[in-house]
Every structure is written in structure tokens, then in C-alpha cells.
């Protein structure tokens, strides 16, 4: 890697805004490596040379939408190919706390990348994408990126930048795959989840009352059917008992009549006369 570019807007007004996340990374790397960034009028940028690797560090001072011109001029002057350029920039598609490295790809509406790709005539440069989150409404993006992140989001962004700086020596050495593997597999900040409140257990008495209410809530038709069946069965049983008693009485009367006929001969004929 021969050139590391941080995208952002110059001036105190924009220094702490989300759109300057690329500036934040290069500035921290320059401070930690004791690389001095000086204003170079020819390239319209703050420029410095990283002593250990020989790579150039650059912060364009032409505002975000015109970032491509300073990069194209320096790359052309030192004959640096797009594949040897790493561009650090803010990324709406990632939440704060996430950083990713990739080569090429679309610009996703990022005006700094749009101008850079147009000036270089290529998308093949490397990108260090620093998550800043998304406002949710596409119409609010411009206002969102030009404002300061919350204290919590800024801490998460700084943490992602710190992890990216740890793998930057691998990128400078040309080990892009090793850098991506290390950066992309590192644990990200855990999301705070609200604990699920367990439902209180229903007392046994409450369950019994609930069952009683449920039973009482049954329709009259359902309650009437068993009662009607019981009454029908009782009537049939009483009828069978009455018939049995009648038959039994009739049987007893026949036996007595036969006995009297045998005991008093002609009694029947006398009664008939």
C-alpha cells in the first residue's frame, strides 16, 4: 500500500461530524506513528510520509464532494495505481462500532467516493469503511452525516477505528487478506438486550376459579343435553319397573283363580247362572 487517504470536510465546523470519520482514522494513525501532516498547496491536501512503510498519508482539503482531485494529482505525480490506494471513509450501512476492509465495489451514494472514482477512472482502490449508522430516512442522510454523533456512538466509532489501526500494518505490508480476517472476525460490541420479564405463575386457587368460570360459561344448550338425557333414562326405567310389577300381579291372580276352581268344583258355573 502506497497511499492512505482519509475522507472528510476541512475546518473546525466539520471536525467532529460523522462525515469526518475517515479524517479521524488517518489523524490518529499519523499521531501514533509520529507522522507530521503538512499542508501542500500543490495537492490541495494535508500530506505526510509514513517513515516505516514509505506510504503517503493524505487528508484532502477540497471538501468531500471534490476529494478526487487531490488524490488523483498525488497518485499521478508518484505513479500510484488505484490498487495501491486505501481510502478510509464513513459508512452509513454499518452501525457505529463496525469497521470493514474491501476492494472495489459500488459507491452507495457517497459523494466523496463518487468524485474519487470519477477522477481515478477506477473503482479498484481499497476501502476502509467505518460504520456511523443510518438515520432511517434517506431524506435525513445529509443532515445526519453533517452532525456530531452521540457520545455513545462516538465511543463505538473510536473503538472501531482503534481495531482498524491494529491491522493497518498488515495492510501496509500487502497482507490484505490477513488484515481482513483479523478485523472482520474480531468481536464487536455486544448489543444490550432488554431482559424478558417472566409471567407470574398462577396460584392453584386461581386456576380452580378459572376452571369453574369456564364451566359456568358453557352454553345452556351444552348443560341442557346431559340433564335431558338423564330424565329420559329415568322415565324409561320407571316404565320398565311398572310393567314388571303389573305382570307380576297378573301372574299371581291367575294362580289363585286356578286353585279356587280345583277346591270348589262348579263354583264358576254357579256364578255364571
Structure description:
This protein is an alpha/beta fold and 273 residues long. The chain has helices at residues 21-32, 68-77, 111-120, 141-145, 151-172, 176-185, 204-216, 220-263, 267-272; strands spanning 3-6, 38-40, 45-49, 56-60, 85-91, 99-103, 126-131. It has nine helices and seven strands, in the order βαβββαββαβαααααα. A hairpin with a 4-residue loop joins β2 (38-40) and β3. α5 runs antiparallel to α6. The longest helix has 44 residues, at 220-263. The N and C termini lie far apart (148 Å).
Task: Furnish the topology, listing elements before pairings.
Blueprint: E1 3-6, H1 21-32, E2 38-40, E3 45-49, E4 56-60, H2 68-77, E5 85-91, E6 99-103, H3 111-120, E7 126-131, H4 141-145, H5 151-172, H6 176-185, H7 204-216, H8 220-263, H9 267-272
Parallel strand pairs: 1-4, 1-5, 5-7
Antiparallel strand pairs: 2-3, 3-4, 6-7
Helix pairs in contact: 1-5, 2-3, 5-6
